[in-house]
Amino acid sequence: MEGYSFLEHSYIEWLTSRIDSGFFKKKGERSRERLKLAAARNLETKGYHEMRVADITHDAGVSDGAFYVYFQDKRDVTLAVMKEFVELLEKSSENSTEKASQATSAAPFEMVRRQNLRYISVGRANAGLMRCILQITDQEAEFDRLVQKMNHDYYLRITKSALKKNEGKGWTEDTVLFLAYSLGAMMDELFRRLVIQPDKYLCAIVAEIAPSDAALADLLSIIWIRVLYPSAVVPEGLSRSAKELMSAIRSSDNAA
């Protein structure tokens, strides 16, 4: 994508900044992007099923007729927004993985923690759009394939990193890839129950043991490390809950 920048927080803020920067020179391009921005705002707050074309045009300050110059219907504009959103997530994930690998070749925990914290923070900043991913993959096969491919590529990068750092242990790529998928599914389900469709019981537990995103990333990263990098050293200075989790894991290892 020309003029690409990586998504670190809100997609809506990213798109707003892109429009305001003067990146789009033609009036038609700017009009189309403003409609996308209006759609993104409504997807974030209302979701795909509740959003109407009238909501988009009202937010953008244009007539319904102007909308149909650029998009066929709400499905068309939604797919334009959501494809760009997930592609940004993918590119940002690639960037995060590459930087972490280069900067922390001897510290797998910091690499994993950075990636998990980014997942949590970017997810929170785009909670409504993350919900829309679930809504749209259920209805749009092409979009579902895009999301599946994005996830697969991410898990494959994790697998290659784990195999490299565990060289000589006899691990196979398929086994490690399955582990990466399993850990990813854990992250997705926890995020869904914490942010997208809050589970009050789980939220109460997390509020007690991991009151910040950084603390939550620590806990989750200990699980990732135990599975994918069992020989890695976990740094000092983690939260009490993180230390308790490490102690429980070590006790389990000793019992075995």
From TrEMBL:
InterPro entries: Homeodomain-like_sf, HTH-type_Tx_Regulator, HTH_TetR. Gene3D superfamilies: Homeodomain-like (1.10.10.60), Tetracycline Repressor, domain 2 (1.10.357.10). It comes from the Bacteria. Keywords: DNA-binding. Residues 52-71 bind DNA. Residues 29-89 form the HTH tetR-type domain. This is TetR/AcrR family transcriptional regulator. The lineage of its organism: Bacteria, Pseudomonadati, Pseudomonadota, Alphaproteobacteria, Emcibacterales.
